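Predict structure. Chain length: 103.
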Amino acid sequence: MDCPPSLFLVSSSEQAEAVTECKPTRPPVRPVYKSSFLGMSIEETANVFQTITADLEAIDSRWFVILDEKSCTEDTGLIVQVKDGVVDSVRVHFDTINAESKS
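Prediction complete.
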């Protein structure tokens, strides 16, 4: 599956709070040396992400992707969905993530 980029990279809470428009992040991407999300569980990340984006129309925090230590070696990420306060996630290949983000 070969899809054009459709994901917007958020590497810190400060960056998320400053978003006014979401355009796909295109390579090359600068390395992220420090992220405010490092060390958080999926549930903690979801809670923080929902809190900092609550008033932002540009970001829908009910559905997002987490890139973690497995992402670089396995070409995968975690699709996270928050629905009625319940956080669910599934690990899928990057191509699937990109394709699903368009639907």
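Summary: Residues 13-101 form one domain.
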